[in-house]
Design goal:
binds 7,8-dihydrobiopterin, alpha/beta, 13 helices, 10% strand, binds fe (iii) ion, four-stranded mixed beta sheet
Length: 279
């Protein structure tokens, strides 16, 4: 990436999609000092809305991660603080990125235990709905489970599966569905009932309640092939959620699994519709 000759100084940290200062790996400095009071206040609003809600809805492993990370309720976290705790727990770290990054770079970061976290935060007008990841989604939603050794190991395996998916027709689409349903929108059965662990759900007030309480969506038992063949919606609550029995189940299904035969068998077929009922 070519750096522009004079990157403006003192631009608000909240400028989204500023790729002008990224390195070859699409990371940049978080520049925490640049967040404005208003940006911290938006974090505080989002955090306050979710923190009580997730006590009743999130998986225990997620809640454990939230507590151990000890992120601030009132300010956007400093990534270096989280990194000290993460590194000591699972060896993971987070790196700052300006937003979505190319798939191959994203996979490479995960394979090397680095989770890309977007630096900017949404505006007040967008508290409830955002199509792209921001720091609240990435940090609040994804980082707590990186404290869990099994889930963290699955995320590494996911990253390691990237190059083969990129090299196989239809492979990327199928691997992306695994991320969508099992990282962003996953549910898990626990001793205290159905719980949420997916980052896309837990960073959304509305979907946290909907995914557990609503009679509308179907909740199917995790099935790797079915997940990787099922289309998804990016503009509305999900029509289908997949439910794990445990994080071990997800890890076991994916670790040391060669997805190539699945890509060959299903990669060129049309996907199963997002709201299709199982046969
Ligand atoms: N980049 N920052 C960021 N975050 C993502 O979740 C992400 C990405 N690039 C690609 C990507 N996700 C997906 O296409 C893969 O999960 C398949
Ligand atoms: Fe995400």
């Amino acid at each position: 990436m070519v750096q522009p000759p004079s990157a403006p100084v003192n631009q608000p940290r909240g400028l989204r999609g500023d790729y002008s200062r990224v390195g070859a790996d699409y990371t940049l400095a978080q520049d925490w000092e640049r967040y404005s009071q208003d940006e911290h206040a938006i974090w505080a609003t989002l955090y306050r809305r979710q923190i009580d809600l997730i006590e009743s809805y999130a998986a225990p492993e997620f809640l454990t991660g939230v507590r151990a990370l000890g992120a601030s309720a009132s300010m956007i976290p400093r990534f270096e603080d989280a990194n000290r705790v993460l590194q000591a727990t699972t060896g993971w770290g987070i790196v700052a990125v300006p937003g979505l990054i190319p798939e191959e770079t994203f996979f490479d970061h995960l394979a090397h235990l680095r989770f890309p976290v977007t630096v900017w935060i949404r505006r007040r007008e967008e508290l409830d709905y955002l199509v792209e990841p921001d720091v609240f989604h990435d940090f609040f939603g994804h980082v707590p489970l990186l404290m869990n050794p099994i889930f963290a190991r699955f995320m590494q395996a996911y990253g390691e599966a990237g190059p083969k998916a990129l090299a196989t027709p239809g492979g990327l689409r199928m691997l992306a569905r695994l991320y969508w349903y099992m990282v962003e929108f996953g549910l898990i059965r626990t001793g205290s009932g159905l719980r949420v662990y997916g980052a896309g759900i837990l960073s959304s007030k509305g979907e946290t309640v909907y995914s557990i309480e609503s009679p509308e969506p179907q909740r199917l038992a995790f099935d790797l092939v079915r997940v990787m063949r099922t289309d998804y919606r990016i503009d509305d609550f999900q029509r289908t959620y997949f439910v794990l029995d445990s994080f071990e189940q997800l890890f076991e299904a994916c670790y040391n699994t060669d997805f190539a035969p699945m890509y060959r068998q299903y990669g060129a077929q049309p996907p199963i519709a997002a709201d299709a009922r199982p046969a």
